[in-house]
Amino acid sequence: MDASELLNRYASGETKFTGVNLAGADLSGSDLIGVDLSRADLHSAVLVFSYLNRAILSKANLLSSKLSGANLSQADLIGAKLRDADLHGAMLQDADLRSADLTLANLLDANLIDADLRNTNLSGANLTGACLRGANMREENRRYSTNLRGANLRKADLRGANLTGADLARVDLRGANLSEATLRGADLSEADLDEASLKGAFLTEAKLVGTNLRRANLTKRQARASRRNRGEP
């Protein structure tokens, strides 16, 4: 199937395109609201500024796809392969990204407000300036924790995000806003939180070995707790 056939059939009222092959297709600016592209092959597809609100893209192959500026709000991306995808400025508010692979993805300035990121692989992803207010990365079972190792979250908005048990080792969180975030049991080993705001954040049982908290906004109580977590007096 090519891009024109998909768009013509969608315009005629068809929405279910499970498993279709659209690798490399140019769908820039397309209106595909509510489309079902689950298990579709969209490898290297161009979806820049496309409208994919409420789309079903579960287990779709979106490796190296171009999704900058795309609207994926409330989209189902469970188990989607988004490795090395370009999501610069994409709208992912309320999107379900559970178990999705976003390794090395570009999420610069992306909107991930209230997104479900449980068990999502974000290792090496660029989340500079991304908004993750209220995003859910909670995972009690550490075998399936959200992987953010080495990710760039500099100046990211993580207010109220649930990061219970998340793997944030060596993550760049300089200047990030973690106010009211839940970091209980999170691994922040060697993470850089220089000038980060942790006002009202919950750091109980967080692993802070080698963590840089210089100039971080911490209450005295939080500072004492963080020293204990780092094994300092």
Q: Kindly state the mean pLDDT as a whole number?
A: 91
Query: How many beta-strand segments?
Result: 0
In helices, the fraction of residues equals under 10%
Could you give the distance between the termini? 65 Å
Cα gyration radius (Å): 19 Å
Main beta sheet strand tally, sense and closure:
none
| Low-pLDDT segments, ≥5 res | none
| Gross geometry | elongated
Q: Which structural class is indicated by helix and strand composition?
A: little secondary structure
Structure notes:
There is one protein chain. By secondary structure, this protein is mostly loops. The chain has helices at 3-11, 220-229. The N and C termini lie far apart (65 Å). The model has no long low-confidence stretch (mean pLDDT 91).
Notable characteristics:
little secondary structure, 8% helix, elongated
Secondary structure topology:
Elements: H1 3-11, H2 220-229
Summarize the structure in short.
The chain has helices spanning 3-11, 220-229. With 233 residues, the chain is largely without helices or strands.
